[in-house]
Amino acid sequence: MADAIIIDGKSIAEGYLAKIKQEVEGLPTPPCLAMVLVGENPASLLYVRYKQKHAESLGITSLLYMLPAEASEAELLHLVNDLNQNPQIDGVLVQLPLPEHIDEFKVISAIRPDKDVDGFTTENIGLLALKKDCLVPCTPLGCIKLLKSVEKDISGLNAVVVGRSNIVGRPLAQMLLNENCTVTVTHSHTKDLPDICVKADILAVAVGNPGMVKGNWIKPGAIVLDVGISYMPDKSIRGDVDFAEALKVAKAITPVPKGVGPMTKAMLMHNTVKAYKKRRGWHDAQPD
Fold first, then answer.
1. What is the pLDDT of residues 48-87, one digit of tens each?
2. Would you please indicate which residues are annotated as catalytic (active-site) residues?
3. How many Å apart are CA 126 and CA 229, to the nearest integer?
4. What pLDDT sits at residue 279?
């Protein structure tokens, strides 16, 4: 069997970004994305700065609001409310994680659903479950688009999702179900995990355990989406799947890095433009 197709997430993301840039150039005003960072976590600061640069390269206005780590929950909620009420702002993103003294759920729930470009509010998650048009989480959306770059029609396929986080696992399982896949969600309490994984036509792994999924966990010809990312002591980056082994078994696989990560960032820009259009009642704000 030939080695698996390596799904080039970086190249696919660049294609989407080119289309988004062209779309933004045709808008009467630029979309505006507001990002909130609490504290000075170096990784989080680097990440939001990268998002800012990304947005501005597409013609999207980006605003960064920084609060000190000791800021109160009330202060953060007040800022979110101000951003909600600002008619110039189309998307609101609160960078996670938040300091321990702040209730993450309460803050995310405070974001207006029509500005929730992360797709994390209960309203958007509920609409996703009901298969209605909404803003959906960026990483699962990117996964679906990468999956369809290999297999356009995934209806009827057996999909196994390893991981049940609110950010990736749960919404991705729902999106696969909405695509008419037969979906199994597994987690840390699942028994006989390898036996379940090896039956999957689509195997998506998002747990943050480097190299956990071995080649013999993968069904020959399966499509593997490796969402995990771990920074190793030698400064290398590894995914949740043993890439070398999977390459010999799978039909296609996303690499780490340059797989799902670039698509997550591209889908944030996609959601920002979509929010801009939906807030104006434009009919070409099509479902994902």
1. 999 999 999 999 999 999 999 999 999 999 999 999 999 9
2. 51, 95, 118
3. 28
4. 92
Contact 172, 143 (CB under 8 A): yes
Give 233's contacts (C-beta < 8 A, 6+ positions apart): none
pLDDT tens digits, 160-174: 999 999 999 999 999
The predicted-structure confidence for 178-232, as pLDDT tens digits, reads as follows 999 999 999 999 999 999 999 999 999 999 999 999 999 999 999 999 999 999 9
Q: 169 Cβ partners below 8 Å, 6+ apart?
A: 161, 162, 163, 185, 187, 206
- Is 28-112's fold the same as 137-262's? yes
For residue 22, give both structure tokens: 């062209």
Provide the β-strand partners of residue 158.
182
Sign (positive or negative) of CA dihedral 210, 136, 19, 24: negative
Instruction: Please report which confidence band the pLDDT of residue 286 belongs to, taking 50, 70 and 90 as the band edges.
Output: low
Q: Where do the domains of the chain lie?
A: 28-112, 137-262
Superfamily the domain 137-262 falls into: NAD(P)-binding Rossmann-like Domain (3.40.50.720)
Q: Percent of the chain at pLDDT above 70?
A: 98
pTM over 0.90: yes
The answer on pLDDT for 287 being more than 90 is no
Euclidean distance between CA atoms 43 and 91, whole angstroms: 22
Which fold would CATH assign to domain 28-112? Answer: Rossmann fold (3.40.50)
Q: What amino acid occupies position 36?
A: V
